[in-house]
Amino acid sequence: MSDLPSFVHIQEVGPRDGLQIEPKFVETADKIRMIEALADAGCREIEAGSFVNPRAVPQMADGDAVFAGIRRREGVAYRALWLNAKGLERAIANGHVDVNGKLTLTASETFVRRNTNRSIDDTLAQMPEWIAQYRANGIAVRTLGLMAAFGCNFEGYIPEAKVLDLIARAEEVMAENGCTLKTVSLADTMGWASPLQVKRLVGAVRDRWPEMRIKLHLHDTRGQAIANAVAAMELGVAYFDSSVGGLGGCPFAGHKGAAGNVSTEDLVFSCHEMGIDTGIDLDALVEVARMAEGLVGHELPGKVMKGGTLTRYKQAAPH
Amino acid sequence: MSDLPSFVHIQEVGPRDGLQIEPKFVETADKIRMIEALADAGCREIEAGSFVNPRAVPQMADGDAVFAGIRRREGVAYRALWLNAKGLERAIANGHVDVNGKLTLTASETFVRRNTNRSIDDTLAQMPEWIAQYRANGIAVRTLGLMAAFGCNFEGYIPEAKVLDLIARAEEVMAENGCTLKTVSLADTMGWASPLQVKRLVGAVRDRWPEMRIKLHLHDTRGQAIANAVAAMELGVAYFDSSVGGLGGCPFAGHKGAAGNVSTEDLVFSCHEMGIDTGIDLDALVEVARMAEGLVGHELPGKVMKGGTLTRYKQAAPH
Questions:
Q1: A190: closest chain B residue by CA
Q2: How many CB pairs under 8 A join A and B?
Q3: Is the interface score ipTM higher than 0.95?
């Protein structure tokens, strides 16, 4: 495990990616309370809300008020999601969003058509417009997010070569438009990845782009998310998305109650037990997970919040 | 991942280790139905019941009837638990138990004293009696189970050197009594292990005893069980205990509803996705997990039973 990083940087996505699927509206003040508690626990990057169609995602209708209401903590990046030019404009106009220049592709043709009514080629063709809009606002584009990078319920496993080809094509478009691709975020959107597949894909990306920062967005739909994260960390991956308490279900799973995003506290526990720092206070984070459970009104899938941390045992132990 | 085994052998422990903690008595006929369904799904070793004090574990009071009632399937070993000479005698007398000669130690002095009112030395000193009782019944002793081999709520992390020393001492006692230690089963009884610790301990045991079969009994108390299993498989470990649906809670966890045994179907999913055979039909196993959920009357922690297998997607996928 010689490539294990010494520090893992986690983007907490619970307040956005986690909450957006919840049917019960979480009050703006409660969202803000959760986001502030996450920052207090040591989270340094928090996806705090989105600027999308409020009719499509009513839970996120209060994006402007959430960002405006957060008591900002120094050193914390408050991120948002947008899906079109208007959303990005709203995020920038809000004035409290740490806007990162990110482009998104989907590795499954069927999935992207169903979700956006556009093909992969259409998405690539639209990238120059995105880049121009970011640039007009003084924001450099350096990140590519690749959805369904491991498997897709409509297309099966995504071949490694296809993922590499899509990254290369996006990199080319970016270069033609004056940007340099620095970070690739690989998302296991439908929970298909295994630790072996993670090692193969991460290894292939690392072989081809040795300087690229690789980030993983893992789902725990089939219980493999922590194992997948560890597999990636063994290859030096040090950037992950995760969701406090495992907030957020999976609309693509076969059964109600399926898990979605990997739980932040389970991931932090894993890191700390392997000697990897995260900057996060695990016990404080577990309290936020319990707060989140109260806010959504049902049990969350995180394990450490139920099993308990080891802190009190370690303090009492003779060695 | 060059040491990944081609086949992983799973002992299904749900009907005993999983059910024993359940407050609602599961009828004998239902236990038998579950055990038979597990065998039909391809499980080749099933811990089907125990011969312990029925006042201490009322759920297991029907051990004799369960074993007598199972429609036995060829090639399946039906295992039981016993904790003293009388229990072993009952298991042998039952006539339907596949009795394996196994000795048990606990790596934490405090934990073994609290559980059994005996010290580690006392436990070692009692081994010759156990061996003699097995031998009188024509059963060879070849297996050592080591509880709390990674960490203990009372003693903290268990040092690797202590684990190696205990294995060596048990091996010596066994050799002095005409037995050869062939299999060591390392149990993460209280859910302390991390993937890094698993690699270190398994590596250390493998270095010292290259021919030893290593087995892991993992708990998912803090969400690390699949990652721990994968870490072990990467070092060639091919023997695991697990529990269908993740049946069985954890009496040592800090919170009600904490997970106990790693879920069999999540482990089988992990194996199959990495090209490792288990002999188990995952879809059939998921049906048993749902049956188990119905029998205990509450949600079980297994993920694949909620997320669904990938079978139907793979069948429909173009590649």
A1: B307
A2: 183
A3: yes
pLDDT tens for chain A, 319 residues: list them: 568 999 999 999 999 999 999 999 999 999 999 999 999 999 999 999 999 999 999 999 999 999 999 999 999 999 999 999 999 999 999 999 999 999 999 999 999 999 899 999 999 999 999 999 999 999 999 999 999 999 999 999 999 999 999 999 999 999 999 999 999 999 999 999 999 999 999 999 999 999 999 999 999 999 999 999 999 999 999 999 999 999 997 777 666 677 899 999 999 999 999 999 999 999 999 999 999 999 999 999 999 999 999 999 999 887 5
pTM value > 0.90: yes
Residue B135 token pair = 């031998």
Please name the CATH architecture into which domain A9-316 falls: Alpha-Beta Barrel (3.20)
CA dihedral sign, ordered B16, B19, B23, B28? negative
Tell me which residues of B are annotated as active site.
250
- Say if the Cβ atoms of B273 and A224 lie within 8 Å: yes
* Distance of alpha carbon B139 from alpha carbon B107, whole angstroms: 25
Q: How distant is the Cα of B1 from the closest Cα of chain A, in angstroms?
A: 7
Domain B1-99+243-251+262-319 has CATH 2.60.40.10: no
Residue ranges per structural domain of chain A: 9-316
Q: Give the contacts of B119 (CB within 8 A, at least 6 positions apart).
A: B109, B112, B113
Spatial distance between the Cα atoms of A30 and A32, rounded to a whole number of angstroms: 5
DSSP string, A186-246: EE-TTS---HHHHHHHHHHHHHH-TT-EEEEE-B-TTS-HHHHHHHHHHTT--EEEEBGGG
Is there a contact between B307 and A224 if contact means CB atoms under 8 Å apart?
no
What does the block give as tokens for B169?
């001492």
Measured between alpha carbons, how far is residue B295 from residues A44, B39, B40, B55, B131 in Å?
44, 18, 18, 22, 37
Q: Which residue has the tokens 């060596």?
A: B168
Tokens linked to B88:
């072993």
Q: State the Cα–Cα distance between residues B272 and B278, nearest whole angstrom.
A: 7
Structure tokens that stand for B4 in this block: 């990944």
**What is the rounded distance in angstroms from the CA atom of residue A299 to the CA atom of residue B162?**
39
Number of residues that make up chain B: 319
The domain over range B101-238 is classified in CATH as 2.70.150.10: no
- CB contact (8 A) between residue B317 and residue A155: yes
CA distance B67 to chain A (A): 32
How is residue A144 written in tokens?
């590519």
> β-pairing, B151-152 with B156-157?
antiparallel
Closest CA to A38 of A72, A83, A2, A3: A72
